[in-house]
Amino acid sequence: MNFEAIKSIYVFEMARMQRTLLQSVISPVITTSLYFIVFGTAIGSRIQTVEGVSYGSFITPGLIMLTLLTQCIANGSIGIYFPKFTGTIYEILSAPVAMTEILVGYVGAAASKGLIIGLIILATASFFVDISIAHPFMMVVFLVLTAVSFSLFGFIIGIWAKNFEQLNIVPMLVVPPLTFLGGSFYSIDMLPPFWQAVSHLNPVLYLVSGFRWSFYEIADVNPAISLAMVGLFLVICLSVVGWMFRTGYRLRN
Amino acid sequence: MASVVSIKNLTKTYGNGFQALKGVDLEIEEGEILALLGPNGAGKTTLISIVCGLVNPSSGTALVGGHDVVRDFRRTRAMIGLVPQELTTDMFETVWNTVSFSRGVHGKKPNPALIEQILKDLSLWSKKDNMLRELSGGMKRRVLIAKALAHEPQILFLDEPTAGVDVNLRREMWQVVEKLRANGVTIILTTHYIEEAEEIADRVGVINGGKLLLVEEKTALMHKLGRKQLRLELVEPLRAVPSSLALHNLTLSEDGTALIHEYQGDEGQGTIASLLSTLAAEDIHFRDLSTRQSSLEDIFVALVGEKAGEKA
């Protein structure tokens, strides 16, 4: 194991976050605060409670997930795409580092950033609404698993993307609808049966539901199933990355 | 001397069917400076890329320090420093950070004193806190060299190091190269500039169309393939080469005022003396004489042209 190399990549990537503090930390916090004001305060004052929890508190886990997914995909993809775009990737590819070590460095940094931002949003939320966490350990498990899998997903997009448009298409066009329709802002029990069934095809539903369960013990789907779905997604991403590394896909050919 | 890089029957065919290397064999000796010459698309960069691990070979083997570059990549890549052809830099990084990163990613513990020395040698010390995008092209080139040296490689690959570089920087770069060579570093450079190879290389390899046409010691190559020309400026113009001189491979200049004698580098001694004595006997006087040796460039053009002709 080339630990120095993993450390170097990790530190280098984390330094990027410090440099772009405004964009990478402050902007998600502001966006989330706006969600709280618009959804939590304006709409929430009319909805009162969902399944016994105040609306503002109810949407908090979903909002954290929304930001976590977006940030992890964005960080995971740009981290590997940017050196590919500028050409500096030659250095990592000609260094005595195994692809798995490159992966740990980049995905580790992207996931760490996502987790930091997720926790900052949790702290921000606690200024607006009452938060209680019923299962702190499971909350952390959901948070970490989600951060790692979606950073990995971002990494795949970063290797696959040939231009900035492709790079942005998933985080911009795919993730927000999935998150909005994945029960971040409502319980799917509120939907007609047909749309409830459709919602079950949405992977984000399982994340949000499981994560919310770790806060308030209320869930749209069984938390064990949620956990299994996150695990499944992680395994799928790992297999794709494994294939990419074996074939040298868009990196070494 | 021992081979530090040993390439055997190496081929590379890219995904689009382009065959960049068609079976290259090459032994690079420890501590030498080898220049690889060749036109664009000859396969120089592909060859380097395979040895450095950027491209997977299609067949054949490349050993660095006796280790296979694919199987034993940790050992081989740790020994190698690469300065790429393109000026690729992380534009938002500082010089210091990017050079330190290079050391770390090669698995070496931080060594600020060494990085400082490298930056000073390359006249980059005053720019260490500048972002890379603020630097001129020549400065970026120096940064790439500094990055390649940060992990103390035993072998340095310079892919077209002086493309678009001004005279001062070129001279400085050769000073750095000389210093590295004095420390026992093996240096392989590719170049279009033949005078560069002529100036600093110990051996020259000519590559074209994915094949290594030859590898020779530079002086031996010049000696063997270099044509020499002796030009005699005559006092009295001649209308034709006198028959008594027919054996001497002479041509007359168009206006008849000069005799030109062409010969191979290693056959000069005897023939010139006899030519001059024949001239004296024929009472042909000359007021000036000059010799010209063909440069590596002439040799190169002749070699590459010849092969291209063969194909056609």
Task: Write a compact overview of the structure shown.
The complex is a heterodimer of chains A (253) and B (312). With 253 residues, chain A is mostly helical.
Write a structural description.
The complex is a heterodimer of chains A (253) and B (312). Chain A is mainly α. Chain A has one domain (3-247). Chain A contains ten helices and two strands. Chain A has helices spanning 3-19, 21-47, 55-86, 89-93, 99-128, 136-160, 164-180, 193-199, 203-216, 223-247, and strands at residues 49-50, 53-54. A two-stranded antiparallel sheet of chain A has the order 1-2. In chain A, a hairpin with a 2-residue loop joins strand 1 and strand 2 (53-54). The longest helix of chain A has 32 residues, at 55-86. Chain A is globular, with a radius of gyration of 19 Å. With 312 residues, chain B is of the alpha/beta class. Chain B has two domains: 3-223, Rossmann fold, CATH 3.40.50.300; 227-293, Alpha-Beta Plaits. Chain B contains ten helices and 14 strands. Chain B has helices at 44-52, 73-79, 95-105, 112-121, 137-149, 167-182, 194-200, 218-225, 268-281, 296-311, and strands at residues 3-13, 19-29, 33-37, 59-64, 67-68, 80-83, 155-159, 186-191, 203-208, 211-217, 227-234, 250-252, 258-264, 286-293. Chain B has a six-stranded mixed sheet, with helices on both faces. A four-stranded antiparallel sheet of chain B has the order 2-1-4-5. In chain B, strands 12-13-11-14 form a four-stranded antiparallel sheet. In chain B, strand 4 and strand 5 (67-68) form a beta hairpin. The longest helix of chain B has 16 residues, at 167-182. Chain B is elongated, with a radius of gyration of 25 Å. The A-B interface holds A 2-5, 7-9, 11-12, 15-16, 19, 82-83, 86-88, 90-98, 248, 252-253 and B 14-15, 52-56, 73-78, 80, 82, 84, 86, 88-92, 97, 101-109, 147.
